[in-house]
Amino acid sequence: DLWQPDVLNDATTNVRVDAFDAIRWAPAGRTLAFMIAGSDGKGAARGFGHTSGPRCFGQDGMGGQIAFVDPESGLSVSYLTNGLDRHFLRQQRRRVSIANKVAACIE
């Protein structure tokens, strides 16, 4: 295993920053190293799909790049681009659309 189970559990479940994120219009949901979809119904605001499980964790990057893991299914996703999309709403919609498509593959 890349990470010890207790470290992975801590990094993917122990929310350390849940202050309101004015850009995403939702609580931040930040753990030690990632954002988690969470069970509060705000996962899509954090860049996860509308049907992503609450344990999904990952991070969105500059210009609309994303990487996340669904520990329930073992599926991981990475979307990279060589361009910088400065339109935040378009980035967010793309992230959620990709995550929705990934979630549909799991179901």
SSE topology sketch:
Blueprint: H1 5-13, E1 20-21, E2 26-27, E3 35-36, E4 57-60, E5 66-70, E6 75-79, H2 88-106
Antiparallel strand pairs: 1-2, 3-4, 4-5, 5-6
**Quantity of strands, as a count:** 6
What is the radius of gyration? 13 Å
Treating each run of at least 4 consecutive H or I residues as one helix, how many helices? 2
How does the overall form come out from the CA principal axes?
globular
Low-pLDDT runs: none
* Proportion of residues in helical segments: 25-40%
User: Mean pLDDT across all residues, rounded?
Assistant: 81
H/E series:
HEEEEEEH
SS-based structural class?
A: alpha+beta
Intertermini distance: 26 Å
Proportion of beta-strand residues: 15-25%
Major sheet: arrangement of strands: 3-4-5-6
User: Major sheet, described briefly?
Assistant: 4 strands, antiparallel
